[in-house]
Write a structure and sequence with these properties.
This protein has helices spanning 2-49, 52-55, 60-74, 106-117, 130-138, 153-158, 202-213, 228-236, 247-257, 287-302, 305-314; strands spanning 81-88, 90-91, 95-97, 103-104, 121-128, 144-150, 160-161, 167-168, 172-177, 194-197, 220-223, 242-245, 261-268, 277-282. The protein has 324 residues and is α/β, with parallel strands linked by helices. It folds into three domains: 2-74; 81-168 and 275-322, Periplasmic binding protein-like II (D-Maltodextrin-Binding Protein, domain 2, 3-Layer(aba) Sandwich), CATH 3.40.190; 172-268, 3-Layer(aba) Sandwich (D-Maltodextrin-Binding Protein, domain 2), CATH 3.40.190.10. Strand 10 (194-197), helix 7 (202-213) and strand 11 (220-223) form a beta-alpha-beta unit. The longest helix has 48 residues, at 2-49. The two termini are 37 Å apart.
Length: 324
């Protein structure tokens, strides 16, 4: 369905471009037609003065041919580059497939808007599992990776991050089973707890880094790429002591599954000295593409469009600190 929509959109762009060229050609012909009349008048005057040979070669037919030949060069053209975007298929409300298999979510809606305002690009999408997206970037299958990616130094060494984000975060909190006596005041209180994380997720990286720096108080990290529903079931069955969460995710998850967990701690792993937004990711070498999307996204932040989307889909404005 999405590929067909992309093909139709591309055809529409090409059709608009062709019509514009035809219009320029017609206008040019009309302009030359007016000029031909003047030439004819000059020719008559030349005949009376004995200079007919000087003006005779300029005819309406010749001028028309020249106009049609020159018209395309007078119309600025935009070379449209088709981009393939690897995006998550099960991370609600950021990027996911609905019951009909259609892409939905905050990041997807943002991308659609960016596509509208960037005439030089045509976006196509491949919805896939989180673990596949950066692999697709590695193999150049995708031009852009999208999955609510937080910033971390290890990932930044390998990939090109956007400079402008679409979401601002202030760290994580911990979802714990209802009635649990777990109290979290800082990262140190996570030591010894069995906590589920997604493989290769940003919070997994942050937990791993914490363990390297605190070998005597390690977090018991368990890698679990199951659905939110499956992880919550494991939490309430005592398989895990906790699952990381964030403000928008906690409220939306409770709205979807009920008040089946408590929230402990706040601002975990927050470091104000590093970027704390979420960003689109590119390959090094695609700096122009990165810069183009940065500029367009900054427009959406400045004019309030992204704020309205955040309030609508995430329940609050998570863009304010991202504005320049």
């Amino acid at each position: 369905m999405k590929e067909k929509e992309g093909e139709l959109k591309m055809k529409s762009k090409k059709l608009r471009k062709a019509l514009a060229l035809i219009l320029v050609a017609v206008l040019a012909v009309a302009a030359v037609g007016c000029g031909s009349k003047s030439s004819s008048d000059s020719k008559t005057k030349g005949t009376n003065s004995g200079n007919e040979a000087t003006v005779a070669p300029t005819t309406a037919a010749t001028a028309t041919t020249e106009a049609v030949t020159l018209a395309p060069t007078a119309e600025p053209t935009v070379a449209v580059k088709t981009l393939k975007i690897g995006i998550g298929n099960a991370f609600k409300p950021m990027c996911y497939l609905d019951e009909d298999g259609n892409l939905q979510g905050y990041e997807y809606e943002t991308l659609k808007k960016l596509d509208e305002i960037l005439p030089q690009y045509e976006f196509t999408y491949e919805a896939t599992e989180f673990k596949n997206i950066l692999v697709g970037l590695d193999t150049k299958t995708y031009d852009i990776a999208v999955h609510h990616y937080g910033w971390n130094a290890e990932r930044a060494d390998k990939y090109l991050y956007a400079n402008v984000g679409d979401y601002y975060g202030i760290g994580y909190n911990l979802r714990i089973a209802k009635g649990s006596n777990i109290v979290i005041n800082s990262e140190d209180d996570l030591g010894g707890l069995k906590i589920a994380v997604g493989t290769s997720s940003n919070v997994a990286y942050l937990s791993e880094t914490y363990n390297k720096n605190h070998p005597d108080n390690k977090i018991n990290i368990v890698y679990d790429d199951g659905t939110t529903e499956q992880q919550l079931a494991s939490l309430n069955n005592g398989v895990y002591d906790g699952i990381y969460g964030d403000p928008f995710g906690n409220s939306l998850t409770k709205a979807a599954y009920g008040d089946i967990f408590d929230v402990a701690g706040e601002n975990l792993f927050y470091d104000p000295t590093i970027p704390n937004g979420t960003y689109f990711i590119f390959n090094y070498g695609d700096e122009q593409l990165r810069d183009d999307l940065d500029a367009a996204l900054q427009q959406l932040l400045d004019n309030g469009w992204e704020k309205e989307l955040s309030i609508k889909l995430l329940g609050a404005d998570y863009t304010a600190i991202l504005k320049k």
